[in-house]
Amino acid sequence: MAYQSIARGSVPNDGNGDDLRTGAGKINDNFVEVYTLLGNGSSLTSDTVVFNNTNNVLTNKTIDSGNNTITIDLSDIGTTFTGTISEFNSSLSDDNFASLSGSETLTNKTISAADNTLTISLNDLSDMPSGTTNQILSTNGAGVYSFVNYNPGLGNIIEDSSPQLGGNLDTNSHTIFSTTGDIVFSPNVDVDFGTNIIKFSNTVSQESDLSNYSPSTYEGMLMHVSGTGSLYYVNNGSWTKVLTDVSESPVENYTSPGPTLSFETNTADGSTYKFTGPGIVSSESNPRFYVYRGHTYIWDNRNYNTSHPLQIRVQSGGNAFTEGVSEPVTGVTKFVVPMNPSDTSLVYQCTVHSAMVGIITII
Predict the structure, then answer these.
(1) Degrees, nearest 5: CA angle 44-47-49
(2) Is the dihedral of CA 11, 16, 22, 26 positive or negative?
(3) Please, are residues 275 and 266 in contact by the beta-carbon 8 Å criterion?
(4) pLDDT of residue 103
(5) Which CATH number fits domain 200-256: 3.30.450, 3.30.499, 3.40.50, 3.40.1620?
(6) Domain map of the chain by residue range?
(7) What does the alpha-carbon distance between residue 301 and residue 358 come to, in Å, rounded to a whole number?
């Protein structure tokens, strides 16, 4: 039944209120419902109100007045226990039961109800194994503990931006390598290999591959060119071929070098090349070169190569002449004049400015 309100009218005796009998009936009906729900129909209960016709949850506790049982809801751990009030009270006498007030010690564990904290005491571990100095407690993952010797080794140094060694580094038959880029010793320090043999493979296929290794950076570097079978080294900022002594007998994969002349660009301005070198007037624009079969000629154009790259061609504006021509490093043109060239009238020309052109005649 819903609550019944007694109509009083707007003003006294306006004829719109309930009569005394009707009003008294509503009052009686309201009280009957209250006494029925909060008591036994004639008297109210003096303690916690419990409804008779259903189960009621009181902060994770259910009291069923129908069969006088109490249920504690432990649904968070997937299990619900039920029992009588007598059984519940009996459980309070268990030594491991923790009450809501004070604190109880549960086998080296203290639960404090005051601040809801759990403290594990390590003051008395009589059931634990004992160890010695420099040992640590270890577990096998199955609840068995033991003390083992402490080994202060490095587990991972990836987050250490400046690691230092406290002693010798033993690779233990493993390899030091880099997944990306070179391994660099910095700053420049001496690496003392003592009397050990240094094994390495500095090999490229052809002379032009040497340009991949800047001679201005790798002074003194050695490189073997498999195509020529010769050894090269960096000297004064350029790659130099090591000449082999053939005074006793011929050497395999060795070609006796012919006379070599070297010229260096001293001017390149969009219309003119000027050179210094044997037999050349340094002020002459686009001078003519006479080259001899079997001889080697080198034009060093590195100081101007970015804006005025030099190329040997079959004619002005024509295709590149490739017989005996190579580029040991960027900006250096090497011409080993063949004995039987396909053409004896050539030119050298800037690949950007066609006016920068001179004649090369093979004799």
Answers:
(1) 70
(2) negative
(3) yes
(4) 65
(5) 3.40.1620
(6) 1-49, 56-91, 200-256, 258-363
(7) 14
Structure tokens at 266: 């001293």
Q: What separation in angstroms does the CA of 270 have from each of 273, 302, 306?
A: 8, 16, 12
Say if CB 363 and CB 294 are below 8 A apart. Answer: no
Does pLDDT of 79 surpass 60?
no
3-state SS assignment for residue 87: helix
Of residues 104 and 222, more confidence is placed in 222
Specify the range with the lowest mean pLDDT, choosing from 95-104, 154-163, 284-293: 95-104
**Which residues does 7 contact at the CB level (< 8 Å), separation at least 6?**
16, 17, 18, 23
153-166 tens-digit pLDDT: 666 667 777 788 88
CB atoms within 10 A of CB 321: 20
The predicted structure's pLDDT at residue 115 = 76
For the stretch 13-53, pLDDT in tens is 888 888 889 888 888 888 888 888 777 777 776 555 555 55
What CATH architecture is 258-363? Answer: Sandwich (2.60)
Preceding amide of 187 cis, omega within 30: yes
Residue 265 has pLDDT above 70, yes or no: yes
> Which residue carries 């129908």 as its tokens?
66
H or E stretch covering 179: none
Average pLDDT in the 211-232 region?
86
- Decide if 277 contacts 348 (C-beta within 8 A): no
